[in-house]
Design goal:
This protein is α/β, with parallel strands linked by helices and 299 residues long. The chain contains ten helices and eleven strands. It is 41% helix and 17% strand. It has a seven-stranded mixed beta sheet, sandwiched between helices. Helix 7 runs parallel beside helix 10, helix 8 crosses helix 9 and helix 9 packs parallel to helix 10.
Amino acid sequence: MAAPRPSTIAFQDGTGAWTPLQAGRYNALLELWSGSGKGFASIAMSSCPELSIIIPALNEERRLPETLEKIHMYVTSKGICAEVLVVDDGSTDGTARVVDAASARFPEVRRISNPTNHGKGFAVRQGMLAACGEIVLFSDADLSTPIEEADKLIAALRQGEYDGAIGSRNLDRRLIESHQSVMREAGGMVFNRVVRLLTGLPFADTQCGFKAFRRDRARILFEQQRIIGFGFDPEILFLAGRHGLRIAEIPVRWAHDPGSKVKFLSDGLHMVGELWTIRRNAWRGHYPRREDSAPGTSG
């Protein structure tokens, strides 16, 4: 059976609507990976993995070799049938070469490439819609949360009580192995308060880049996702609430990587603006609930 076709609509980020050219390029990518028989999704479907792991990557030639090695060791030791989709989001270094070399060694590794950079949210969305595993997990390329912590998220989903499980740094801060600067940690706490205020989300940590979902239930979240930058996490969790998905927040080990690409001030301010975009999108009816969605868009 072919993978469900994702919706092809124009998206907007926190700065306004995409141009028709940008939307056309994005929709062309969705067509490529939507089960047309020519793209990645149709190839991946033949293996029907239990677990899909999505790694958004921008200029990650230095960190990816160790990351992909660790992921391979993890899925092999667990006996998990898995696919690892690295979304190369317009890298200008040797990221593509590194992923292809890993793919030659590890059959579960695949590369999805964008000719230009769009944003982390864009790359995660792209990977999530291309994935075909029963459970789909996305993780940062630096594995700031060790891949072994996936056991906790997968266990919560396999019990059947939850549709999604998100890693949290704030539920048990004793699990933080390497802290951010005092300013970054304080900024993160302020941002979480703003998230709660503007979206009503109850989570202690929306920004940990380690989240897993049951693909069949969560596909609609990524079909409706519109934010393509770092502020996409609150949006997908807000959408989860609108669609009645049950999300578990689970404390995980985490270590700050000094090579983090999040710029404290500029990205932080932009993410706050994206929270207003979420509210505006909801008011304008851009997030129709599942029962109101057009046939075929709920995954």
